[in-house]
Please model this.
Amino acid sequence: MKTLPTVCTVLLITLLLSSAACSPKIAESAPGQPPPAQTQPPAAATPVPEAAFDPGLTTVMEMVDRLNAGDLEGSLAYFADDAMGYIVGLPPTGMEVYAGKEQIRALWTDSISNHFLWEIGDTQVDGNVIYVQAKTWHDFTRQLEVAPLSWNDVYEIQEGKIATYSTTITAESLSKLKPALAAVMPPEPTSAPSADPPVSEMMVTIAGGTCSTDSPQALQSGDIRVTVNAEDLQNTGYALTVFSLAEGKDMVDLMATTAGMPPEWAEMLLMEELEPGKSATYTFTAENRPVYMICWSQPPDLAIGNAGPFEVRP
Model:
């Protein structure tokens, strides 16, 4: 069974650092040394917006301040034990899922060890949901000379704790990051065509805060029936979208656009909403281009999983 996305067994940040260590093109920082002055964010790394009196926004800002100060436990204290974390739009899969505070701890630990800095920009409060435009610095992105990277963050606050954290890289930052990574990382091996016979039916299961599919990677050209089972009950709604992309675009590009409207180079083949605890079957038409899936939860509207590309055969 494939996970949408597969929960990474190695953190992306760790992957990036490992690739940097293997490349002679990037000079490593001396252990324990701060990053070069020109790559530091402004002195006020977390400016206080006018809406800082909002309890949810205060929770987010204090969590960020604690992480910037290197206080691992202090920062994690603002998360619910069963909090979900989503990092969207980064290579290689376009999506990483962190289920629970302990998985987030691993990411936070790596961040602190690599002089991670987080700058809060514009914010918007909508009930218990906080929207933040942010910038980040990390030793590896400093070495790649692409820092800072810009992000669209979403936080859902429940009972004073962060229950959901999602961060999506902006398309502009991704356009800097992808070529910089390509210059220092070996190319991904080309996948051999799937030996499985193409299918015309698929099943997607929404559970555990993400999704999984039992479908092989090859689809039969024509009408495809997809059955969606929304086993999770904690959100008021779920959704599945299916796309085909213009040549030269991939899943990472697609995921970086999930914080906005679908781009012109993505053709939406299916968009269906589903209530929690329900199951339904839908149909979309696959032709001569690969197919990509994204599943969502709401509120807030967040991408929680992806899969693809699925090869389409005549």
In short: The chain has a mean pLDDT of 85. DSSP finds seven helices and 16 strands in the chain.
